[in-house]
Amino acid sequence: MRPTVNGWLFDIHHIKDQMVLWIKQKGGIKRLEYPWSPSIYVASNLKKDLLALLDDNKILSMIKSYNFETKYEYPPSISNNHKNKKEVLKLTLADSFNILNLAKRIEKLSIRFGHYRLYNVDISPEQAFLYEKELYPMGIYNIERNTEENLEGFKEYQISNDKNDNIDSFEYAIPELKFLSFELISEKRSILNNIRDEILKIKVLVFNNDVPIKDAFYVFKENELETILEFAYEINRIDPDIILTTGGDQFLFPHLLYRAKVNKVQNQLLANLSREANIEYILKKNKLFLNTDTEGGSNSSSSFFSYGRVYFRPRPFFLYGRTHIDINNSFIYKDNGLDGLTELSRICRIPMQIASRSTIGKCLSSLYFYNAQKNDILIPWKPTTSEVFKSFSDLLKSDKGGSIFESKPGAYDNVAEFDFVSLYPNIMLKKNISSDTINCSCCNPESESESESKDRVPELKHLYHICKKRTGIVPLSLKTVLDRRLEYKYRKNNCNNQSDSHMKLRDRYDNRQTALKWILVTSFGYLGFSNSKFGRIDAHIAVCAFARDLLSITSKIAERHGFEIIHGIVDSIWVKERELQLKTSSIKDVKKMAYSKKRLKDLKSEIEELTDFSISFEGVYKWIVFDYSKSSPTLPALNRYFGVFDDGTIKMRGIEARRHDTPVFFINFQQELVNTMAGCENINEIIKKIPHLETIYKKYKSLLISRKVNYTDLIFTKRISKNSNDCEDRKTIENCVLKKLAEGGTHLHAGEQIKYIITDFYSKNYLNRATPIELINKNNPNYDKKRYLEILKKTYDSVTRVFYQR
């Protein structure tokens, strides 16, 4: 062997039977071809049925080789005993484009349910390669090439970790990357954007990481054709590693590509956008973009439902050898930058460009897949795990979710808050809860001792037992995330030096731990998600049961320590010292604060000791308001409260200032009210401040009446739940906006956002009620003063009404 290259694994993509590796070096980038093809696995109860597949000519035409291997099937119930591996048929493809065609062909040959069971079908070739070769994106590798050819005539590579990097590293280096961003300036036919608009010039900015290399410049020539070709030339000359856009997937690249197609230079443009020189491959990958004449490549964009909301995902526009990051389509990059994105990409083993657009659930699944493959567990194409049968009474016991201690609406002084640290992920880890460990076939619950049975699922011991012989895929994966996040938080908190280098390091740790936090937040919901490969509703139910039990134990400990429960929800609890104890205490007022903090510290210690779960003491509120439900003044709003800690930190949940759809004007107004109240030490002081709060209200009211508010601060943002065409019969403000946009040629998909101002809320003609921002006359914006004044009053009442009632 001879040394070939050393550098960062920047990007990978698969062409036929080759995995193309792009290795980032200090002096540039290197393209390597690694001979490799993805495989799928087929299981059946009889080997002769697997052999029969090899007689099918269509199957043979799509594979380059096959062999039999022993693997664990998933879920374990299929093979009855997880300890026994099973012989399965491995089919290695000749071209990765045929994976789904091959799987569907085999499925078609199945004569009954479960006849042929398919595995590892919908894992991308890039991810499968990373799992198999124990590689991860942005890792530093030494790559050597064999001098001898393998049986297929290829010279293989040997890849090993550089001594300065490994997957467990916390101080890994990110190479200096060259970024390029651009904007299209076009000749608009209407106020709304349209991909048919002719491109006049292109604004380009180049920078290294966060530092601009030079001022932005414009690309423009005598006509559109030459402007597009000149831009393609500039891309090739500058040779950026990352093209960073705002709306690149949905509009910028579809617009640019459409205009290039009109001018018959799409091949030249695509050849320069990517570093990959195989133009046939590039054209094949961008076929849908080239064949569409609508914004965002709508024939392959998608809307999806998650946690009560509909979201829209435009078709991603990928580059090859470069990385395209669309800020609008990557909340991880938007919130946590390159540090957070790199951390997720490495740990979950997903190429950075794909990770930037992936849901957190997809990133989490990739981590599960990696650990499954590492343990020889096959990944089912279509999950078939069924729910444990339950009687009606069992269903009532099990389907409860988390515990809630309803608060009595109102304002309170001196309330302490405790939050369990990553409670649900830690329950999954410590209790070994996973879809493959619930009611496993290898453990016998009947033979458990009394002490062992105490670890069974609370309230549901007769329904569930948890495996004690092996660690499940879910806890095995979550341990990596929990440990890394804890370490990053520790390192962040120990960066006390105020120097620029330490502040940058602190930000880096914070971005990485926050990115990991999103995996933990998602892990519980994904455990019960029907389409999750390693999800199971019974595992989800078990986690909830343990959480309810923990909150119940915690409340009893708090009451035993002389505290009353003000509010509790799932993994958080708010407590207050009993009034009787405060009045009869012989300790003087000057010592009372220290006394209370000691009692709170003792409470924290006992909760952790008796539950074996970490709980954080968030602090003591000088005052806190738990709001009541909008439907009834006697019922609490479980997720709406605000208050101020004794160090002056404000915490708000659920009120208008925290909502994403609230106009900036009302956010600023409510924030000023809360900031004013934050200076008060208790509720009585806030009541005395009411005249001052009313003065603030009158100030904002005057601004609206005199029309001195910038229209941009009055914009409402709403996410639509249906496509534009499906909302025609609804006479709502949202439909008014959609109809006006449609008249201008813009049709939105479910999950996309609309932005508008209210123009005549009480008009009998609903089409006069609002105007989308794209159609607003910016020189003379007209807004409905009466409606905005009503909203201002509601925003004021939302945070002050409890003080008027005392």
Automatic annotation (TrEMBL):
Molecular functions per Gene Ontology: DNA binding; DNA-directed DNA polymerase activity; nucleotide binding
GO biological process: DNA-templated DNA replication
EC number(s) stated in the UniProt entry for this protein: 2.7.7.7
Positions of the DNA-directed DNA polymerase family B multifunctional domain: 369-795
SMART domains tied to this protein: POLBc
Record's keyword terms, sorted: DNA-binding, DNA-directed DNA polymerase, Nucleotidyltransferase, Transferase
Pfam families, per database record: DNA_pol_B, DNA_pol_B_exo1
Record bears the keyword DNA-binding: yes
Coiled coil segments of this chain: none
Domain of life: Archaea
Entry-linked Gene3D superfamilies: DNA polymerase family B, C-terminal domain (1.10.132.60), Helix hairpin bin (1.10.287.690), Palm domain of DNA polymerase (3.90.1600.10), Ribonuclease H-like superfamily/Ribonuclease H (3.30.420.10)
Class in the EC hierarchy, top level: transferase
Domain DNA-directed DNA polymerase family B exonuclease stretches: 117-274
Keyword Cell wall biogenesis/degradation found: no
Catalytic activity: DNA(n) + a 2'-deoxyribonucleoside 5'-triphosphate = DNA(n+1) + diphosphate
UniProt record similarity statement: Belongs to the DNA polymerase type-B family.
The protein's name: DNA-directed DNA polymerase
Organism of this sequence: Candidatus Nitrosocosmicus franklandianus
Annotated gene: polB
